[in-house]
Amino acid sequence: MTPEQRSRCMAAIKGKDTKPEKIVRKYLFSRGLRYRVNNRKLPGSPDIVLKKYKTVVFIDGCFWHGHEGCKYYRLPKTNVDFWRHKIAMNIARDYANGVDLRLAGWKVIRVWECDIKTKVNREATLESLYQEIIGTEHRSGTYGSIPNGTSIAAEPNFPYGDKKN
Ligand SMILES: [Zn+2]
């Protein structure tokens, strides 16, 4: 391999500066948002960190993060158990990182790579991402939300302030 090929290969392996990430960053920048990238001090090294909005964004590759029902998520025909296990571990880690970040007060938004790769979805995905970052949109969400049935947020019936003298 030439040095150039090798560095491209390494970049692909590490998943750094993949194309969809660049598209998202460029778009957010064009909308006036400023951010830091690949913050390794935060759980999961979020792809984009918007401190002003206390928001982190992950752009998840559909294969590695197991995008159910997505055409980019096809397990290889060999070593199926290995891949299944590996991707299940990734999903579990994503989930745990999301919980840690939320507990630390961050808003966590996950974007599927296919929604950026696919031109028909791109514009709507980017616009809705922007709205979600600046906080005007509250989506029940196909991404960015904790899986159904799990809640670490409010406990509405917890008797805070119920203590009378
Ligand atoms: Zn996908």
Q: N- to C-terminal separation?
A: 75 Å
Mean pLDDT: 82
Highest CATH level, the class: Alpha Beta
Bound molecules: zinc ion
Low-confidence stretches: 139-165
Basic shape: globular
Domain module count: 1
List keywords for this structure.
disordered C terminus, Endonuclease, Chain A, binds zinc ion, globular, alpha+beta, 5 helices
Compact summary:
This protein is α+β, with helices and mostly antiparallel strands and 165 residues long. The chain has five helices and four strands, in the order H-H-E-E-E-H-E-H-H. The chain has helices spanning 3-14, 19-30, 80-103, 113-117, 119-134; strands spanning 36-37, 48-50, 55-60, 107-112.
Can you offer a commentary on this structure?
- The chain has 165 residues and is of the alpha+beta class.
- The protein has one domain (15-134): Endonuclease, Chain A (3-Layer(aba) Sandwich).
- It is 42% helix and 10% strand.
- The protein contains five helices and four strands; from the N terminus they run ααβββαβαα.
- The chain has helices at 3-14, 19-30, 80-103, 113-117, 119-134, and strands at 36-37, 48-50, 55-60, 107-112.
- A four-stranded mixed β-sheet has the order 1-2-3-4, sandwiched between helices.
- The radius of gyration is 18 Å and the shape is globular.
- The termini are far apart.
- Mean pLDDT is 82; it is low at 139-165.
- Bound molecules: zinc ion.
- Zinc ion binds next to loops.
- Zinc ion binds at residues 62, 67, 70, 72, 112, 114.
